[in-house]
Amino acid sequence: SGSERLADKPSIYFAFALMSYLFTVSVNLTLIITISLDKTLHEPIYIFLCSLCFNEICGASSFYPKLLHDLLTNSYVITYTACLGQMFVTYSYIFSEFTSLTVMAYDRYIAICKPLQYRMLMTAQKVAQLLMLTWCFSVFETAVGTVLTARLPLCGRHIPKIFCTNWEVVKLSCSDSTVNNIYAFMLIFSHLSQTALIMVSYVHLIRAAIRSQADRRKFMQTCLPHLITLLVFTTSLMFDTMYSRYSGGSTMKALQNALAAQFLVVPPLVNPIIYGLNLQQIRSRMVHRFTHRTGTFRKN
């Protein structure tokens, strides 16, 4: 009976992971479709939110399919090419997440601190440029890092994580990885600078929000969830990065894997809820569509 219980565990984990993945994709797609079909929601903040939701789907898809395959086959093996591919999608998601949150903070800064200039500053062309910057810059950063890693010869095969990360692969190399280390610290500095820029903008946002009740309401609806998500994402990512680089032992591996999975599992699931459902216009449109369809079904 003990062996049967152990054999049942992968099936339970598989079912839980599959439900989590499907729910994550569905809530993000629901938000994207709701915004796309409603012309009243074709505003910069909602367009940036669509981009963020698409990125969340990419992030979840870099983690769940391989995990589901491993649980289904009970085989935790991956080819080197597939490992590099998973790394590419994962880090594109990470870098795009930081850049997307920075762009959304910039949008909220103009909307609250410079409301009279918002329409003039956030034009359709400006929105398109910011979206192009978000995706192209993130993909370029990832491509450079992937190429630098792929050139290294490997002397090991074991990765102590449930998914591939750049540093774990670099640690398996037989040659000098100084260039990879320098580039990694450049990326860390770059995205920590983005976080600092967001925090500075929030100082101005808080000052502006104090002025009127409308600004306070706008801040609570759109900015506070944004700030909480940013801090959770940055903290978990930095802990995982530092622990992977400077921990020489095998202690706390369960905690390390849990924190590593956190930024691939929690933000893609939580972001569409705290951003989408917390925004009154999106919430009212979703309720309207649901009640309208329910009423139509009842009439039929």
UniProtKB/TrEMBL annotation:
<keyword id="KW-0675">Receptor</keyword>
<keyword id="KW-0716">Sensory transduction</keyword>
<dbReference type="InterPro" id="IPR000276">
    <property type="entry name" value="GPCR_Rhodpsn"/>
</dbReference>
<keyword id="KW-0807">Transducer</keyword>
<dbReference type="InterPro" id="IPR017452">
    <property type="entry name" value="GPCR_Rhodpsn_7TM"/>
</dbReference>
<feature type="transmembrane region" description="Helical">
    <location>
        <begin position="219"/>
        <end position="239"/>
    </location>
</feature>
<keyword id="KW-1003">Cell membrane</keyword>
<keyword id="KW-0325">Glycoprotein</keyword>
<keyword id="KW-0552">Olfaction</keyword>
<comment type="similarity">
    <text>Belongs to the G-protein coupled receptor 1 family.</text>
</comment>
<keyword id="KW-1015">Disulfide bond</keyword>
<dbReference type="GO" id="GO:0004930">
    <property type="term" value="F:G protein-coupled receptor activity"/>
</dbReference>
<dbReference type="GO" id="GO:0005886">
    <property type="term" value="C:plasma membrane"/>
</dbReference>
<feature type="domain" description="G-protein coupled receptors family 1 profile">
    <location>
        <begin position="27"/>
        <end position="275"/>
    </location>
</feature>
<feature type="transmembrane region" description="Helical">
    <location>
        <begin position="127"/>
        <end position="148"/>
    </location>
</feature>
<protein>
    <recommendedName>
        <fullName>Olfactory receptor</fullName>
    </recommendedName>
</protein>
<feature type="transmembrane region" description="Helical">
    <location>
        <begin position="259"/>
        <end position="279"/>
    </location>
</feature>
<keyword id="KW-0297">G-protein coupled receptor</keyword>
<feature type="transmembrane region" description="Helical">
    <location>
        <begin position="182"/>
        <end position="207"/>
    </location>
</feature>
<dbReference type="InterPro" id="IPR052921">
    <property type="entry name" value="GPCR1_Superfamily_Member"/>
</dbReference>
<feature type="transmembrane region" description="Helical">
    <location>
        <begin position="45"/>
        <end position="64"/>
    </location>
</feature>
<feature type="transmembrane region" description="Helical">
    <location>
        <begin position="12"/>
        <end position="33"/>
    </location>
</feature>
<dbReference type="InterPro" id="IPR000725">
    <property type="entry name" value="Olfact_rcpt"/>
</dbReference>
<keyword id="KW-0812">Transmembrane</keyword>
<feature type="transmembrane region" description="Helical">
    <location>
        <begin position="84"/>
        <end position="106"/>
    </location>
</feature>
<keyword id="KW-0472">Membrane</keyword>
<dbReference type="GO" id="GO:0005549">
    <property type="term" value="F:odorant binding"/>
</dbReference>
<dbReference type="Pfam" id="PF13853">
    <property type="entry name" value="7tm_4"/>
</dbReference>
<dbReference type="GO" id="GO:0004984">
    <property type="term" value="F:olfactory receptor activity"/>
</dbReference>
<keyword id="KW-1133">Transmembrane helix</keyword>
